[in-house]
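Chain X:
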Amino acid sequence: GDAEKARVFQLENALLFIPYGCLVDEFQHAVYENPKLTPKERRQLWLNLEKKYRPWLDFDNLPFFKEGGGFQKQHHIYCYPFYYIDYCLAQTVALEFWRESEQNWKQAFARYLEFVSAAGTKSFVQLIADCKLGSPFENDSIKALSEQALAWVEQRRVTQ
């Protein structure tokens, strides 16, 4: 029903956000490391990163985006630099709890409460280690989460 469609939609959006957040973060690092980039070079950088992180997008009929202007719509780049990666880290933790909730909702929720109760008292790395969550800094951790989430989505598509 509609609730299942909403769950699929939310999970798909969670997965789509991570590459975008990484794109924003890498763009900012490059711009700060190369402050003399021209506007044209910044636009080309954004386009290159779009191809790297979101190759499925097609901007052919959107000249502003086709010419690399997409970064200008992202308020965080101007007002909260280097903050977007925090969203990606939070999203990976949310996916970890989602994965566990598929096996044991009560246990996952209890662990989630433990996690958020310790927020602000430890570093992110220490928090995820103490809660025995996978680290998004480890090779293939996000890939494994994504594959499981995509399999879940595909299973629901087949049954709808």
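Chain Y:
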Amino acid sequence: NKEIWDVANIAWLIDPSWGPSELRPSPILSDNKTWSHDPRRHQIRQCRDLNRDAIFGDLFTKLAEAK
């Protein structure tokens, strides 16, 4: 199964258990295209995994009910 990250934001709003996440300081992209971290930066929500089957199951159920 392959995750479709484009739907992560909406899926998390519908059911946060479909994409466990955590708050982390926002990363900094340096000029040499590497990431650095500063714990004083603003927080972002980072999701590292998605339950693709649950997300698509919900989507297809809602599409079928919309007919």
